[in-house]
From TrEMBL:
The lineage of its organism: Eukaryota, Metazoa, Chordata, Craniata, Vertebrata. It comes from Ameca splendens. InterPro entries: 3-OHacyl-CoA_DH_CS, 3-OHacyl-CoA_DH_NAD-bd, 3HC_DH_C, 6-PGluconate_DH-like_C_sf, ClpP/crotonase-like_dom_sf, Enoyl-CoA_hyd/isom_CS, Enoyl-CoA_hydra/iso, NAD(P)-bd_dom_sf. Its main location: other. It is found in: Peroxisome. In the C-terminal section; belongs to the 3-hydroxyacyl-CoA dehydrogenase family. Residues 298-471 form the 3-hydroxyacyl-CoA dehydrogenase NAD binding domain. Pathway: Lipid metabolism; fatty acid beta-oxidation. This is Peroxisomal bifunctional enzyme.
């Protein structure tokens, strides 16, 4: 709703009230219309201020209402009512003016912002366009290039930038509402002819055609199949080719197409999923709202390789004192230099103070004795990690949380090396650790709720999206990756090339295909793990070379590693690069010949595999594992899996995540295809449909928010 008051006798103040961000729900829109009419009809009122309760102007349309039937007054006429008013209306922008919130402000005659406010049109991130006049008013106000940039990226601008661009008229360090009231008094009675943005002429410039062409090229390149950015450009284009009223019609038309699209549903689902994962729970009943995190002031990182360096940067930037340990002096010095550079670049980029003095470097593990939390980030070697956990258990003060950055090893095995297994959790960062937003927080069967809560809270402090997951091989992300990778290898055996598989996945929207990712992260990483698991049998021939434990196995990755082809770092992998460390992947004739020779050796007849089969086999095997993970209670809900895949594995956000995608395709369809492929490849375990997907499909495929009801609660783990 909206609250009306009169200030200083002549200023009508309309306060939006819809916590936490004063989103424009039906009730708020009704409140605005009612209070505007009141302000306009009271003769004593000479001007109006619109503001939001609790220091937040408005977070935009109420996204929760998007799924329901439209009630209350629509936004566009409501904003026209404000703009057409004969009394000056001033927006007092505190906190945020986003989406419909900024469009509302653009309908006002003046805008005053607090210096800490953020303004933007982030609709594109929800699969939409600014459909309440934003695409027509903003270019008229600030010009096409700046409007295009803000609308197609959805980026939030600071108040200072908004002032520079001409979006706001004044910025204040004090109360924006007080400033707006004063301002409203000063403009009472003045002509509003030049203040109604919809009446501004169409933006003109001789290079507009070029600007739009460039913008369209850029969004097509970066959108990876997302339709909203492209549609945003089309809507802004209407602002230069059509008069305002016609432009609004075009905006409405384009908005309606997006509004009902699967991509908009996926992005809106993802918006709430990313927020829902902070409300974690475990099968034993531990929960985010009943588990208190411990205070952490001092943290330590053991091992300053690529991951340890990124983790140290993240901790320092979160304001913690950090002890960074690397036992070899030379490596310690190298790491120190590298970390300082990373901090410097990051401080420059983010415009924040340098956090270099937060980190103390040391050669001795003893230096972590008084840390509240230690993150071990050494090589992925269980024996080494065990030794470190034994050491830490003896060195650290009582109550220190011991975390491991393993990407898939058994947390409980490490916990059992310590005297306090309840204080051991996994903190699985993703490379580069100071950039990637995802953190898998892994609880073992003995981790305490308090330890889990502390690690989750630490992730948040570091600006990460933390997802709590149970302990199993590979946790959620890497466990699901295994059947996906496996299918990609099998496709090569059956006749595909790495380029073909990657193209299909990139067309789907992945930032990189599976083979390019493998080259980037290093083929040797998986090879080491497979060796440790006893899967690598050098020189094996005949049928046994492609079978492990009764199931189909592809040794292709092992064979490449035996040739020293580790990917980008060696200049050769699934692709070739111009030099070791090169970034541009080129098809490699050697690899094609090697595949032919391999197929001939194993009596495999290459066939033409269509795109659909490549996509289905890779994705459905991954999704099937996701259902198994839900059934095993490793992830509490499909949202957890989807957030992990979008933030950690390049799954296209506009497809919502693998579990959402499965729902969109139709669980019965996914099940039917899995059954088909399992029949064709009975020796591939990953294609055998998991019982949860069967159960859901048999129950008429309920919507994703109801899947949890169908998951059998596993026995207590904590
Ligand atoms: C018919 C339509 C016609 C015209 C087009 C207009 C379209 C729109 O306006 S679409 C909405 C555009 N606005 C946004 O995209 C803003 C989305 N919100 C945010 O970016 C952030 O929430 C924030 C910057 C506003 C605040 O961030 P922060 O302080 O970090 O809090 P949270 O993100 O955790 O949010 C708190 C809480 O609020 C819920 N919420 C936020 N925005 C909205 C919204 N617009 N509608 C409904 N609910 C919103 C958010 O989900 C959190 O609640 P939960 O934790 O319960 O999920």
């Amino acid at each position: 709703m909206a609250f009306y008051s009169r200030v200083s006798g002549s200023v009508g103040v309309i306060t939006l009230q819809n916590p936490p961000v004063n989103a424009l729900s039906a009730a708020v829109r009704q409140g605005i219309v009612d209070t505007m009419h009141r302000a306009l009809s009271e003769p004593e009122v000479k001007s109006v201020v619109i503001c939001g309760q609790n220091g937040k102007f408005c977070g935009g349309a109420d996204i929760r209402e998007f799924g329901a039937n439209m009630r209350g007054p629509p936004l566009v006429p409501m904003i026209h009512l404000i703009e057409a008013a004969e009394k000056p209306v001033v927006a007092a922008i505190e906190g945020v003016a986003l989406g419909g919130g900024l469009e509302l402000a653009l309908g006002c005659h003046y805008r005053i912002a607090h210096s800490k406010a953020r303004l933007g049109l982030p609709e594109v991130t929800l699969g939409l366009l600014p459909g309440a006049g934003g695409t027509q008013r903003l270019p008229r106000l600030i010009g096409v290039p700046a409007a295009l940039e803000l609308i197609t990226t959805g980026r939030h601008a600071t108040a200072a930038e908004a002032l520079q661009l001409g979006i706001v008229d004044e910025v204040t360090d004090h109360s924006a509402v007080d400033a707006a009231v004063k301002f409203a008094q000063s403009v009472a009675g003045k002509s509003l002819d030049a203040r109604r943005i919809s009446t501004y002429p169409r933006p003109r410039s001789p290079d507009l055609a070029e600007i739009f062409e460039k913008a369209m090229k850029e969004v097509r390149r970066s959108a990876r199949g997302a339709i909203a950015p492209v549609t945003c450009v089309q809507a802004v284009h209407a602002s230069v080719t059509l008069p305002y009223a016609k432009g609004m019609e075009r905006e409405r038309e384009l908005f309606s197409t997006l509004f009902t699209s699967g991509q908009a549903h996926a992005l809106q689902y993802y918006f709430f999923a990313q927020r829902a994962v902070s409300r974690w729970s475990t099968p034993s009943g531990a929960r985010w709202d009943t588990s208190k995190p411990r205070p952490v002031h001092k943290a330590a990182v053991i091992g300053l390789g690529t991951m340890g360096r990124g983790i140290s940067v993240s901790l320092a930037q979160a304001g913690l004192s950090v002890v960074a340990v690397e036992t070899q002096e030379k490596q310690l010095l190298e790491a120190k230099q590298a970390v300082s550079g990373m901090l410097e670049r990051s401080a420059k980029r983010r415009g924040v103070p340098l956090a270099d003095d937060k980190i103390k470097y040391n050669c001795s593990v003893q230096a972590v004795a008084d840390a509240d939390l230690v993150i071990e980030a050494v090589f992925e070697d269980m024996a080494l990690k065990k030794t470190i956990f034994q050491q830490l258990s003896g060195i650290c003060k009582p109550g220190t949380l011991l975390c491991t950055n393993t990407s898939g090893l058994d947390i409980d095995e490490l916990a059992s090396q310590t005297q306090s297994p309840e204080l051991v959790v996994g903190m699985h960062f993703f490379a580069p650790a100071h950039v990637m937003k995802l953190l898998e927080v892994v609880y073992g069967p003995r981790s305490s709720p308090e330890a889990l809560a502390t690690a989750m809270e630490m992730g948040k402090k570091m600006g990460k999206v933390s997802v709590a997951v149970g302990n199993c091989r590979g946790f959620v992300g890497n466990r699901m990756l295994k059947p996906y990778l496996e299918q990609a290898f099998f496709l090569l055996e059956e006749g595909a090339t790495p380029e073909q598989v990657d193209q299909v996945l990139e067309e789907f929207g992945f930032a990189m295909g599976v083979f390019k990712v493998s080259d980037l992260s290093g083929l040797d990483v998986g090879w080491k793990v497979r060796k440790a698991d006893g899967l690598v049998v050098p020189g094996s021939t005949g049928k046994s070379a492609r079978i492990r434990g009764g199931s189909r196995y592809s040794p292709l990755g092992d064979l490449l590693c035996e040739q020293g082809r580790f990917g980008q770092k060696t200049g050769r992998g699934w692709y070739q690069y111009d030099k070791p460390g090169g970034r541009v992947a080129k098809p490699d004739p050697w690899l094609h010949g090697f595949l032919e020779e391999y197929r001939a050796r194993h009596g495999l007849v290459a066939r033409r595999i269509d795109h659909q089969e490549m996509l289905e086999r890779c994705l459905y095997a991954l999704i099937n594992e996701g259902f198994q993970i839900l059934q095993d209670g490793i992830a509490a809900g499909p949202e957890d899996i989807d957030v992990i895949y979008v933030l950690g594995y390049g799954w296209p956000r506009h497809r919502g995540g693998p579990m959402f995608y499965a729902g969109l395709v139709g669980l019965d369809k996914v099940l039917e295809r899995l059954e088909h492929y399992h029949q064709v490849y009975p020796d591939v375990l990953g294609l055998k449909p998991c019982s949860l997907i069967r159960k859901l499909a048999a129950s008429s495929s309920p919507p994703i928010h109801r899947w949890r009801e169908f998951i059998q609660k596993p026995r207590s783990q904590l």
